[in-house]
């Protein structure tokens, strides 16, 4: 059997096992195959093997691939997004996971609104200890939501985070449970355009922990496509 097919089956079965271990149904967990640095031919092959949703983190790369892959494929923007590139995502992505400032949210609202399109977005939260530029701090979420309620062309469907890159399982778990607790803390904040159901968390090295902590969307690249070549 083809290695790609084998990898996909392996990942699906690991998702199933982690879900069962935590008393959850695997149907609650959506897999986004992260296809950055993967050629269009292999993305199409993965689609043939049953995957429907693919994540990209660079707009330029997404645009190029969009023309070359099966039109049935759903793309999701999962990486940092500059405001001047938002317009290119219209009609090309099903969701944006990396909304990390109100400025970016306003630009998404404006651009998609001009075309009368509603777009699903997740709010990226910085839960890890290490310094990174991207993601709101948990303390910033409240003010973000207060402003975001006016952005009617966006459906805010959940929260996203990237766990700490470490071997310390406790620390990784802390990142994911922080995101789950934030969703609970803001569950009262339910409006026409805000309903934080989804938790996008878990990558190749930590998706089983993320599922145990309540992840509803895992973003997995390496375990499916192999090590990336840059
Ligand atoms: C690359 C990437 C992933 C997938 O990482 P793997 O370790 O290859 O599974 C997930 N989320 C984001 C935001 C990424 O940039």
Give the CATH superfamily: Alanine racemase
Task: Write down the overall geometry.
Answer: globular
Examine the secondary-structure arrangement and name the CATH architecture. Answer: Alpha-Beta Barrel
Sheet-strand content, in percent, reads: 15-25%
Sheet having the most strands: 8 strands, parallel
The secondary structure category is alpha/beta
Chemical compounds bound to the protein: pyridoxal-5'-phosphate
Care to count the β-strands? 8
Tell me what you see in this structure.
The protein is α/β, with parallel strands linked by helices and 230 residues long. The protein has one domain: TIM Barrel. Helix content is 37%, strand content 18%. The chain is built from eight helices and eight strands, in the order αβαβαββαβαβαβαβα. An eight-stranded parallel beta sheet has the order 7-6-5-4-3-2-1-8. The longest helix is centred in the N-terminal third of the chain and has 19 residues. It starts with a helix and ends in a 5-residue tail after the last helix. The structure holds pyridoxal-5'-phosphate. The site of pyridoxal-5'-phosphate has 13 residues, from β8.
Write a brief structural summary.
This protein is 37% helix and 18% strand. The protein is α/β, with parallel strands linked by helices and 230 residues long.
């Amino acid at each position: 059997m083809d290695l790609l097919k084998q990898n996909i089956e392996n990942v699906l079965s690991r998702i199933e096992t982690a879900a069962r271990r935590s008393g959850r149904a695997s149907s609650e967990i959506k897999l986004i195959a992260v296809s950055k640095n993967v050629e269009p031919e292999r993305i199409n092959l993965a689609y043939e093997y049953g995957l429907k949703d693919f994540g990209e983190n660079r707009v330029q790369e997404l645009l190029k691939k969009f023309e070359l892959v099966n039109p049935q494929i759903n793309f999701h923007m999962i990486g940092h997004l500059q405001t001047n590139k938002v317009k290119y995502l219209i009609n090309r992505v099903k969701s944006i996971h990396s909304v990390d400032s109100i400025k970016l949210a306003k630009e998404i609202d404006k651009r998609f609104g001009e075309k009368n399109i509603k777009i699903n977005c997740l709010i990226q939260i910085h839960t890890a200890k290490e310094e990174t530029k991207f993601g709101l701090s948990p303390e910033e979420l409240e003010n973000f939501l207060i402003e975001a309620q006016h952005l009617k062309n966006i459906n805010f469907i959940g929260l996203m985070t990237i766990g700490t890159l470490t071997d310390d399982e406790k620390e990784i778990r802390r990142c994911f449970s922080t995101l789950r607790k934030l969703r609970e803390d803001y569950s009262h904040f339910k409006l026409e355009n805000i309903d934080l159901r989804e938790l996008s968390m878990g990558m190749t090295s930590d998706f089983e922990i993320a599922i145990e902590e309540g992840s509803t969307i895992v973003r997995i690249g390496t375990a499916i496509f192999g090590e990336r070549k840059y």
